[in-house]
């Protein structure tokens, strides 16, 4: 079999150097209907990522129509982002990351591609929009105001929706790997600021007319407007978004693998403790904890007061001993504190505020 290409990045502080078959590639982002050069649009897995409607066939979710096809509907039907199966290798210290469509030595599939029986899915879906409510149910559609409720509230709302849940750290694993390699930076907010210096949250669909695979409404740097990453609107900014699969109790992260066993924000025997503790103070992330059994959950273990020390551009906030839910991304007045990995564990699972939202993502 012909060996498939490897696209890599090696980090030295904030900036990265493209490696392997990514050498010389360009990844520009657009504004509104601007056409830009992005070489990753022509290679997998990035080039196959598209918004789509879906349908359940024999118990599995499949794409039914893609954006741009006849029949695609982002107003009356839920929309998600299709991602084909890929494999990756990431250094424990984040010094490099590599992506390929083939499972080379040392490469593994992101956790979301793995079924409970160990087989691999050919594709998965990520969120396209911040979740609103349509016809009395959570929805991933254009033109909806963000719905505001607690993590407990979202888990109750999605309990009868089959494989539809809110985001988890499994979504983050895929998104962050692809962001790192494509943009060759640990700080993708430096590429697209997102809605982090705005006056109010935006309804979903603000970036529907952005022509480039990634880019922003109006401009990429002011922070006044939403951005999208390959169909994922507001990958950071606008609102923090809950993650259903992680609770932190007394600074230890716990992971839940079966959403049906969520117990109103209580850490039960169904949760697995990770092998590290989070940082005991707020600040800019210098190091992340990595548990080999759950590489999708990476939370800051060391922070500093200096933004540029590590180059991550990741701000972390936490609270004292107790049980807290994980929220990721940042919100409209969060400024440089927002980002793809910026997160907080300083809100109880029952807390609900205007800046806490969610996004639907098939399991």
How would you characterize the overall build of this protein?
The protein has one domain. 6% of the residues lie in helices and 31% in strands. The chain contains 2 helices and 25 strands. The strands form 6 sheets. Strands 16, 17, 18, 19, 20, 21, 22, 23 and 24 form a 9-stranded mixed β-sheet that branches. Strands 2-1-8-7 form a 4-stranded antiparallel β-sheet, with helices on one face. A 4-stranded mixed β-sheet has the order 3-13-14-15, with no helix packed on it. It is globular and about 50 Å long. The chain starts with 5 loop residues before the first strand and ends with a strand. The mean pLDDT is 95.
Total number of strands? 25
Radius of gyration: 19 Å
Number of helices: 2
Which sheet architecture does the biggest sheet show?
9 strands, mixed
Poorly predicted parts: none
The first-to-last residue Cα distance is 32 Å
In total, the number of domains comes to 1
Gross morphology:
globular
Proportion in β-strands: 25-35%
What is the mean pLDDT?
95
- What class would the helix/strand composition place it in? mainly beta
Helix content: under 10%
Order of helices and strands: EEEEEEEEEEEHEHEEEEEEEEEEEEE
């Amino acid at each position: 079999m012909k060996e498939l290409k490897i696209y890599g990045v090696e980090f030295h502080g904030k900036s990265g150097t493209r490696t392997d078959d990514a050498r010389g590639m360009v990844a520009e982002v657009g504004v509104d209907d601007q056409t830009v050069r992005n070489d990753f649009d022509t290679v997998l897995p990035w080039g196959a990522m598209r918004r789509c409607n879906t349908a359940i066939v024999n118990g599995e979710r499949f794409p039914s129509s893609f954006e741009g096809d006849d029949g695609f509907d982002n107003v009356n039907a839920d929309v998600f982002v299709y991602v084909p199966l890929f494999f990756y290798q990431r250094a424990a210290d984040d010094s490099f990351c590599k992506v390929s469509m083939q499972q080379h030595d040392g490469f593994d599939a992101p956790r979301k591609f793995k079924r409970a029986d160990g087989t691999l899915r050919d594709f998965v879906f990520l969120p396209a929009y911040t979740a609103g409510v349509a016809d009395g149910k959570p929805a991933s559609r254009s033109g909806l105001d963000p719905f505001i409720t607690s993590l407990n509230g979202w888990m109750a709302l999605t309990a009868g929706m089959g494989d539809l849940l809110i985001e988890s750290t499994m979504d983050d694993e895929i998104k962050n790997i692809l962001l790192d390699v494509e943009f060759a930076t640990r700080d993708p907010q430096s590429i697209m600021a997102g809605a982090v210096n705005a006056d109010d949250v935006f309804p979903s669909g603000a970036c529907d007319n952005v022509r480039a695979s990634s880019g922003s409404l109006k401009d990429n740097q002011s922070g006044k407007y939403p951005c999208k990453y390959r169909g994922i609107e507001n990958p950071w900014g606008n609102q923090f978004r809950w993650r259903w699969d992680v609770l932190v109790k007394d600074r230890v992260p716990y992971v839940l693998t079966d959403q049906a066993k969520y117990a109103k924000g209580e850490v039960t025997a169904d949760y697995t403790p990770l092998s590290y503790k989070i940082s005991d103070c707020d600040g800019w992330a210098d190091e992340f904890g990595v548990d080999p059994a759950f590489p999708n959950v990476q939370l800051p273990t060391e922070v500093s007061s200096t933004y540029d020390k590590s180059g991550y551009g990741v701000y972390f906030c936490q609270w004292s001993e107790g049980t807290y839910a994980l929220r990721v991304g940042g919100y409209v007045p969060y400024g440089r504190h927002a980002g793809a990995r910026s997160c907080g564990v300083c809100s109880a699972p029952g807390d609900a505020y205007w800046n806490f939202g969610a996004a639907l993502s098939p399991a």
